[in-house]
Amino acid sequence: MASEKEVKLLDFGVSPFGVRTRIALAEKEVEYEYKEEKNLNLGEKSELLLKSNPVHKKIPVLIHHGKPICESLIIVQYIDEVFPSKTPILPSDPYARALARFWADFVDKKISQYALRVWKLKKGEELEETKKELVENLRTLEAELGEKKYFGGEDFGLVDIAFVPFTSWFYSFKAFGLLSVEDEFPKLAAWGKRCMERKSVAKSLSEPKKLYEFLSARRKRGRKGEKARERSEIVVASSILLDHRPEFRRTTRERAERAMAEEKEVKLLDYWVSPFGVRTRIALAEKGVEYEYKEENLSEKSELLLKSNPVHKKIPVLLHHGKPICESLIIVQYIDEAFPSKTPILPSDPYGRALARFWADFIDKKFYPSMNRIGKLKKGEEFEETKQEIVESLRTLEVELGEKKYFGGEDFGLVDIALVPFTSWFYSFKVFAELSVEQECPKLAAWEKRCLERESVAKSLPDPKKVFDLVSSRRKTRGFE
Question: In which domain of life is the source organism classified (predicted)?
Fold first, then answer.
């Protein structure tokens, strides 16, 4: 096991993402050196931070034996893996781990996004819409908690660590006249109090009244220069908003198990052109897993899809022994853990796994949103700006690839699986956006060709010209061509 003394944390006091890291370190009883980024609120970042996280330039950053680990949920999983002697943060069962990752991801996409925005807004339509989304998402989270002590049952774990830092913000929500979590969500409020009984939480959370003073000062300064005062962690929203329904009061596991019969060991609910579905198909092929493929009509979603993924109502969904796993990167990691006998998708080294998760996350947060947006834009200034964002993201990925065969070196793995489905869209970029990946990023183009030599990739990727026909049809429908 790695020495516990060689640990540093670059952080900013009130950051809920930094608090996650502090709680995880406290749970594992890891001693570390804390380095406060004191002037982060003024847009000033230390040389060490910029060197340690040159991609996002954000806190928190955990430095272990001189190696940086970035993005809070990735850091927490790294801490769990590299310091395994203490109480585990993630459960040992692959399905339970997948559920924990799903709900932690939900907190990032659907809670933190609105919690970090709602206090900045002036009264008006946008504030009311943001408040409504936050309330609905908290309701969904409370339904998942149910009567359990913690989100994982009796065990304090990843989802609790992901969400509990935001309980410090509840006082501010009430003081700003936004909502009273205690009145509207008594189970979440009670859960927060239980969490505060843990030493790891009590000593890590920001004091609510001090946080309120900090937020009040920022509200008074207004939004002038907000871009320069970049918040500690950016969470890109999913392109599809949640459509929660009050009747979903049972846990995800209970809803799914009651809804589905176990006809086949493995089923995949998917849509042929979805790059996220392609990820799942490649992973299953790499592992040699036979499965039943069920094509979805996304304009008229099946009852099975709605029952299997009642939160997001999206594909892909993997059903294994009747149990649903959602969100493509979570599915790929589940496949790796549930079918360990074949070539691993993630490396065995915890730091290697953290790096793989970081770059896969980068693809979802930085590359995909721009790629998804450009097809919906008319040519003009915003179109060109989005095109440049795509190029910059691809160049960043190309730098990471370097001279390696695959992103993980000689081994095809998670980052390759995360990115390669989008190569089917490169032809469309070239035709309608005049963006040639081969010219802009020749190393990525060569990597694409190497990936296509793998049977798992070649048989899973859709035909680029069929993708272009679909993109072209949609642009014509929008009156762009």
Answer: Eukaryota
To which CATH superfamily is domain 7-82 assigned? Glutaredoxin (3.40.30.10)
Task: Note the pTM of the prediction, 2 decimals.
Answer: 0.89
In this prediction, residue 85 carries a pLDDT of 83
Sheet arrangement for strand 67-70: 33-36, 7-11, 61-64, 67-70
The residues pairing with 62 across neighbouring beta strands, listed in sequence order, are 9, 69
Complete DSSP assignment for 289-351: ---EEEE--TTS--HHHHHH-TTT--S-EEEETTEEEESHHHHHHHHHHHSTTS--SS-SSHH
94-221 domain in CATH 3.10.450.50? Answer: no
**How far apart (Å, rounded) are the C-alpha atoms in residues 107 and 93?**
21
Domain spans of the chain? 7-82, 94-221, 252-338, 350-477
Least confident of 122-126, 238-242, 333-337, 467-471: 238-242
Q: How many helices (H) and strands (E) does the chain have?
A: 25, 8
Separation CA 252–CA 42 (nearest Å)? 42
- Checking if the pLDDT of 228 tops 80, the result is no
Identity at 376, one-letter amino acid code: K
State the Cα angle at 193 between 190 and 198, rounded to 5°: 135
The answer to whether 265 touches 321, Cβ cutoff 8 Å, is: yes
Let me know: does 143 contact 249? Beta carbons within 8 Å: yes
The backbone torsions φ and ψ at residue 145, rounded to the nearest 5 degrees and listed phi first, read: -65, -45
- In order of 112, 262, 309, the CA distances from 259 in angstroms are 30, 10, 11
Q: Are strands 33-36 and 7-11 parallel, antiparallel or unpaired?
A: parallel
Angle, alpha carbons 255-235-230 (nearest 5°): 160
Residue with tokens 């220069």: 225
Question: Considering only 131-140, 211-220, 242-251, 321-330, which range has the smallest mean pLDDT?
Answer: 242-251
Residue type, 411: D
Q: Tokens for 445?
A: 């183009």
pLDDT value of residue 248: 32
Q: Do residues 281 and 331 lie in contact, with contact meaning Cβ atoms separated by under 8 Å?
A: no
> Which residue is associated with the tokens 């008319």?
378
